[in-house]
């Protein structure tokens, strides 16, 4: 048996990348195992002492235990590849909002920690330590650099980039595939409302100038961007339907009107007399606002606008909804939760998943069945109560 007199530990999960094989050296009557490397963020050389032993044989045994192999291109760093090759190539090939997401991941969470690492030195072990650092809680602030969901996104971006590096011969294999993404914390949270909660909310906001917007969202299941981009010319009151033809998206922190991503998103959605009345009241209210501000009114042709006729910033809409939800005394959900609610209630009331797929604009019915089933259990209970009432009520002979 050998004695380990001292053993250094890593100060930071990703601040060091080893280079070459560990070496056994004599030092002050002991045998030490040292590993050359460099700082992952700055590229500065660092040597680490992996252990100190009382015999050369013990040191050599440990040296053999930590030996590993590496494959990769010579000289090119992760930062060089991502900034000079991958990001520029992506800019013209993806949506602006998607490119913003890639840029955020690369420049905020990949390059600052891994930028100086050579592609050939990027191993699963290095990436494991990187992932740990992303989700580790800072003892000074009490918060993590990223949550589990955001970390999974950043890991996915890096994996996509390295997969292309493999395809282009820069790497022998993608080391991200050998890592495991952090598991998202399972916190009970409500993504949508029950039918009763939705009715309570609509009753609470009935006098608000944008009450009809929430009514439309719950009945039609429009996405937030589709709702805020809806034009009066898209609404056919007489035939009780509306056409979804554009969306208001946030790109680079600013709202931008743009076309829909897929053909299935372009659709016609029907509604009933209740929504007809709500839209008619909303138009009367909007006409009153136009008359009040006169020449200051900017005619955007949109159904839901600011008090000057301009489009509503999607982030401002989310903040407004949060305030109104608090006032209504119902569980807090996001604007996307309105769509969840429309889907979950619709599956019970409509009873046809294909119809709901088309109303929601899903290209694949599996998205309808798998993505928006969070609140179905409550709706099924409601359906069961209704059926119970029907069967318990005597019918006239």
Condensed summary:
The protein has 397 residues and is of the alpha+beta class.
CATH level-four homologous superfamily name of the largest domain: Intergrase catalytic core
Determine the mean pLDDT.
Answer: 79
| Helix-strand sequence | EEEEEHHHHHHHHEEEEEHHHHHH
Low-confidence segments, ≥5 residues, pLDDT <50? Answer: 1-13, 68-73, 364-397
| Helix amount | 40-55%
The number of distinct structural domains comes to 3
CATH architecture verdict of the largest domain: Orthogonal Bundle
| Beta-strand share of residues | 5-15%
- How does the overall form come out from the CA principal axes? elongated
**What's the CATH topology name of the largest domain?**
hpI Integrase, Chain A
Termini Cα gap: 94 Å
Using only CA atoms, what is the Rg? Answer: 29 Å
- Based on secondary structure, the structural category is alpha+beta
